[in-house]
Amino acid sequence: MAKEIPDLVAEARTGTGKGAARQARRNGKVPGIVYGDHKDPVAIQFDFNQLLTKLRAGRFLSTLWNLKVEGQEDVRVICRGVQKDVVKDLPTHIDFMRLRRTSKINLFIQVDFINQDKCPALKRGGTLVTVRPEVELVVTAGDIPESIVVDLEGRQIGETIHISDVTLPEGAVPVTDRNFVIANLAAPSALLSEEGAEEAEAPEVEAEAEAPEA
What we know:
Shape: elongated
Order of helices and strands: EHEEHEEEEHEEEEEEH
Distance between the termini: 76 Å
Radius of gyration: 26 Å
Oligomer: single chain
Strand content: 35-45%
Number of helices: 4
Helix content: 10-25%
Structural class: alpha+beta
Largest sheet: 6 strands, mixed, barrel
């Protein structure tokens, strides 16, 4: 299932250059530009507070957006740069690149775990430790997966789940070639305590076995 692409609402901006950008900022807007796909650049602007909220939510530069500008066709874009005030660290200008449906892009995709009720490790009181709740993949702009699905059925305590253990969505590949860890199934604290006690007793048993006869 393709991932739903979030909307990003902007306004058309009249005029270009530093003067027009300063005027937009005086009006409480953040000026921006949309370029790429062999089309002319389009000047836009955003409501300052709305844009700041989205920027602070995280993953802004790695999210594919459906840019909506009144009077224009929606277009898929990805942010390619945010200029900020060096003192206040607030956005002053933003750049977007148009993407075709066939374009390849890097995005962070959410990891979902299924069949927890069929996982022996969890039934024995183990804990699922998620190392990567999201994984950066190279995906096609027109077919972004909703998530990466990890099946926990049959997983035992102590198992580690690597990216190579997961069936990735069709057409998606990890950004890195390294076989990194996504999650592991840790033993319950009671079991760890028992194992620790057994290890502590082991030297005493060996010592008795090695003691010379009287």
